[in-house]
Each structure stands twice: as C-alpha cells, then as structure tokens.
Design a protein that fits this description.
Number of domains: 1
Structural class: alpha/beta
Order of helices and strands: HHHEHEHEEHEHHEE
CATH architecture: 3-Layer(aba) Sandwich
Number of helices: 8
Strand content: 15-25%
Strand order of the largest sheet: 3-2-1-4-5-7-6
Mean pLDDT: 86
Distance between the termini: 30 Å
Helix content: 25-40%
Length: about 220
C-alpha cells in the first residue's frame, strides 16, 4: 500500500485508533477464533525452548497457546501498535504471572527487533489490517532465524464460486471492523518476501485462511 504521506503516519494513526476501540471488545472474537488460532500456532512448528514472535498480538489472545508450545525455558514476544491492545496484553501477562512473555509496543512496519532472533513467528488476523503489509513481512523475515517458520491466520474476500457476489459486503465489513488494507494481499506478499507460501486450510467460504511459510536455511 502506498502511504498518502511520506511515511504512512495517517494510515498508522487510523489503524491505531481502530484497534484502540476494539481493545476492550475482543472477548467474543477471542472465543470464536480459538480453534483457527490454535491451528496457526501448531503450523509454526514451535519447539520447547524456542523464542517466538506474535506480530500484531492484540490483547495477547495467543500467549497461552504459545507458552504451552515453548515451555518454561522458551520466550514469547508480542508486538502491537495499539495503546489499548498493549495495555490489555500486559494486563493479561501480569494477571497470569507469565515471566517468559514480553509485550512490546511498536509499529510492525518498523519493528525494533534484533535480526535472526526468533525461532518462529505467528500472526492472527493481523497482517491484513496493517497499512504496509510488505514492510511488516520483511521485518518478520529479517527477525527470523534461517529455517524458522511463519504461520498466519488471515482474512480475504471470497476467492471463488458464486459466493463472490458477497464480496462488496465482505470488503465493507473488513474495512469497518479492522481498517482492512485493500491494496495488498497478505498471502501474495508472504510468497514474494519468503519465496513461497503454503495454504493449509480455508474456512467461511475461503474468507478465513491458515497458511505457513519459512525462511530459507543458509
């Protein structure tokens, strides 16, 4: 997506406001998406002791699953731009006493992450709402160690069949709900940056997808 100003400040500010609004209203979405998010976490092939990145972590809905995967010796880093989401993610961590979960407030398109730090990464309904998906995906790619996997749960319009007639409504809903980026396709960007992407599952007429890619080994 080409920003309207020099560095995309307007798009980031709009996204931040939208997700601040949803930060205190995420309970229903958390419950309904639990199965697909677990499938996404499993697709990342996380091992005990791994350091894992949750990009666009929201209120930390993936943290418990990720902690189960990395075990007590692993570490989870959640990154989100929204003040409200970060506050609730940190509150979740404090309430549960998780000492191996860290929440970082930062712009995913310019993530303050050390190169080749992470053994795996996940993003659940996050990339599609970012104003510059390509920049965010490149940031994840750089942060992953060679051979690491990046699993995503993403949203898109109905991809095929008669139900495509519903796409104007689908697009409108995505725009209103999550400040949807219409100019970039997350799966296409993943394939371009990582070299390939594997579609694992589709739900809800193909509008909800789980996919995985990985960083090449050296």
């Amino acid at each position: 997506m080409q920003p309207h100003d020099g560095d995309g400040r307007a798009e980031r500010a709009r996204s931040r406001r939208r997700w601040n609004f949803w930060s205190s209203r995420w309970g229903l979405v958390e419950r309904d998406s639990a199965g697909i998010r677990r499938e996404t976490v499993e697709a990342a092939a996380i091992e005990r002791g791994d350091v894992v990145l949750d990009i666009g972590c929201g209120p930390g809905v993936n943290f418990e699953m990720l902690r189960e995967s990395v075990g007590p010796d692993g570490h989870v880093v959640g990154l989100d731009l929204s003040d409200g989401m970060v506050e609730r993610a940190r509150e979740r961590v404090r309430e549960r006493g998780w000492t191996n979960v860290e929440v970082v407030q930062a712009d995913a398109t310019h993530p303050p992450l050390r190169t080749e730090r992470f053994d795996a990464a996940v993003a659940t309904t996050a990339l599609v709402a970012m104003p510059d998906i390509a920049a965010a995906v490149r940031g994840v790619h750089d942060a992953l160690r060679p051979g690491a996997r990046f699993a995503v749960y993403e949203l898109r319009p109905v991809p095929r069949g008669p139900a495509r007639v519903l796409n104007p409504l689908v697009r409108r809903f995505f725009r209103l709900f999550g400040n949807w980026n219409e100019e970039e396709r997350a799966l296409d960007v993943l394939a371009e940056v990582f070299g390939a992407v594997e579609l694992l599952d589709e739900y809800a007429l193909g509008t909800n997808v789980v996919a995985v890619t990985g960083k090449a080994t050296e």
